[in-house]
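Late entry, evening session. Most of the bench is empty. Finally got around to the prediction I had been postponing all week. Sequence below, unchanged from the version circulated by S.P.
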Amino acid sequence: MYHALIIDDENPVRIAITALGHWHAYGIVEPAIAVNGKEGLSCCRELHPDIVFVDMQMPIMGGIEFLEKAKDEFPNIKVIVVSGYDYFEYAQAAIKQGAIDYLLKPVVEEELNMALEKAVRLLNIENNIEETEPIPENTDISPARVIEIIKEYIEQNYCQDIKISMFSDKYFFSKEYLSKLFKKKYGFGIYEYALSLRMERAKELLAQPEIQIQDISDRLGYSNNNYFSKAFKNYYNLSPTEYREQI
């Protein structure tokens, strides 16, 4: 099954796309939701969608900025732009950043599902291609750059199980040395920084009452809800339920 994400600040549009898409017919799980590009990037890091619908004009982060960031970080997702504006510069920017289709609002069921069919066809073709041997990476790299790479990796993968040995083995620096450099530069230990990002994201998700705490735990990479609740309470001195009630 493929996974999809809808990024749009208009609730009626999100409802329409969800209702009109023939998700199960195309082997797609019913889509997740995000309300702006920044939230969409976080959802991409947590949910790893295969297909993303994105609006062009949204608060905080619009579609063009999302496409620019997503193109490098998630090169394999199939992006379908949904816009209320038939502007040439929007369509041009979408195509430049790799979008596979451009739909106008109000969304038409037939056009929506044609775009879904196209996305699934491309995904199926890619999944049948044999993997090639990876190109060896250059390990002649400074410790300062390794620390930057670690920070970037954590920001993109904080919901995963992160091990310092991933970097010590790859770049031939000891775990202790990397940990010391990281804390000196950023003021956090490596695991502390990953935890801080998880907890900040947890607060954002808890502010959305329609998302169950169990789902938040799963999205942030915790093996069970009790472990997530304990980690949250240790960090904020409040349980997730207590925090949600406060806000």
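Two things to note before I forget:
The longest helix spans residues 109-127.
The beta strands are 4-7, 32-34, 51-54, 78-83, 101-104.
Will write this up properly tomorrow.
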